[in-house]
Amino acid sequence: MTTRTATTFPPPIPEARRWLDGVTFPPERPLINLSQAAPVDPPPPALRAAMAEAMERPEAHLYGAVLGNASLRQALAETWSQHYGGAVDAARIAITQGCNQAFAAVLTALTTEGDEVILPLPWYFNHKMWLDMSGVTAVPLATGADLIPDADAAEALVTPRTRAIALVSPNNPGGVEYPPETLRAFFDLARKHGLKLILDETYRDFHSMNGAPHDLLRAPGWDETLIQLYSFSKAYRLTGHRVGAIVACPALLAEVEKFMDTVAICAPQIGQIAAEWGLRHLGPWVAEQRQEILSRRAAVAEHFPKLAAKGWTLLGLGAYFAYVEHPFAEPAATLAPKIVREAGVLLLPGSMFYPKGDATGERQFRVAFANADSAGIATMTERLAALDWPLAAPGGGK
User: Fold this and answer.
1) Do 93 and 239 belong to one domain?
2) Element (DSSP H or E) covering residue 72
3) Is residue 397 part of a domain?
4) Are residues 273 and 291 both part of a single domain?
């Protein structure tokens, strides 16, 4: 018998951490950990103080509303309406235990076993894992050298079992920001075929574009097609407090409520209180964090020529990520532990973001630079450029 969990692969981040077992990193050459897209610094002092004060409120230790605290839903609706220039009210907001749970809740509400969801490649591995465990087929949508998916190519993959198209922008793992016209084309495609467009905007706060990255919420009846997912973890450093959100039509959220009540009952109260406080008070601080991430993005672009001279290619860059192609003969899954041992750099191989058997990912690595400053990024490029291993033959073969 194959269980639900046995249908999918082991989680990649714990696997990558095991590559550190038994490896020592001297003080003069410490590990540069570029494996996970989660801030390691704590929330800012003012937010920590607000969270400490919240601990004294009796209601902070009780179950809350299944779809989230009313005041947080209202605050996010106001923020969303202002940012996107569209009308969003609290009835179209649900609060979840992180954005991964938001995806799981939405897909449970939309699909049943044997259904299909289109995912562009490289895909976010947790999205693929949830679809596997749900008995839903993840239909891979190949992308070109720019990693931008094409709506016409996606339309060729639509079948009677297709229920949704799931996009992540800014993209994880590719880093690329999908242009507004790309997002509009996918919205129109989904609407044409009666599908849902799931748009995961976990990294929205670090988009290089000033203002809204798309105008989809201005479309009449947008919530008949569009479902947006969001995470408070990155903007406010609340990763351990697990607070995410869904923006969708009330009818879908009524189905999500069944999932939430069964799985979690409600998102954590302290996390919700912190998220609301952040929305109402930390706008300037988040803007500063965005500028810091953009400076790290610029540092990757500045120092990448050292790697380009050695045959590396920069495929995508944005938000928390760079996505690169390596020049070596061995596959990325084999090289990743070697890079830890020989260069003191922890990266995720592209094979973690592609279907099993697709050799494309074996040429690639994801670089999560959210916790590496500009100096660390420069050091990373120097260490990788110093690797002297057999090169792949022209065309990618050994």
Assistant:
1) yes
2) helix 70-84
3) no
4) no
User: Nearest to residue 168, comparing CAs of 72, 234, 223?
Assistant: 234
pLDDT at 395 over 70: no
Q: Which two tokens stand for residue 303?
A: 């120092």
Q: Which stretch of DSSP H or E encloses residue 263?
A: helix 250-263
Distance of alpha carbon 203 from alpha carbon 347, whole angstroms: 19
Q: For residues 142 and 266, state if they share a domain.
A: yes
Given a cut of 90, whether residue 63 has pLDDT beyond it is: yes
C-alpha to C-alpha distance for 163 and 117, rounded to whole angstroms: 6
Of 385, 390, 389, residue with least CA distance to 305? 385
Residue 395 included in any domain:
no
- pLDDT value at position 398? 40
The average confidence (pLDDT) of the chain is 95
pLDDT for 303-327, tens place per residue?
999 999 999 999 999 999 999 999 9
Where in the sequence is the domain holding 194, given as residue range(s)? 46-282
Residue 67 has pLDDT above 90, yes or no: yes
Predicted local confidence at residue 396, as pLDDT: 54
How many Å apart are CA 319 and CA 205, to the nearest integer?
A: 8
- Cα–Cα dist 289/54, whole Å: 24
Is residue 392 in a domain? no
As a whole number of angstroms, the distance between CA 304 and CA 307 comes to 5
Residue where a domain terminates, one of 242, 258, 282? 282
Band of pLDDT at residue 237, cut at 50, 70 and 90: very high
Domain count within the chain: 2
CA dihedral (76, 231, 67, 198) positive or negative: positive
Q: Which residue has the tokens 């450093």?
A: 237
CA distance 27 to 255: 52
- Do residues 278 and 289 both lie within one domain? no
- Which of 238, 260, 282 is the C-terminal boundary of a domain? 282
H/E segment holding residue 164: strand 162-168
- Is 328 part of a structural domain of the chain? yes
pTM as predicted: 0.95
The pLDDT of residue 38: 83
Collapsing DSSP states into helix, strand and coil, what is residue 314? strand
Given pLDDT bands bounded at 50, 70 and 90, which one contains residue 56? very high
CA distance 39 to 182: 29
Query: What per-residue string of b and e applies to 79-92 under the rule 16 or more CB within 10 Å gives b?
Result: ebeeebebebebeb
Residues 243 and 308 in one domain: no
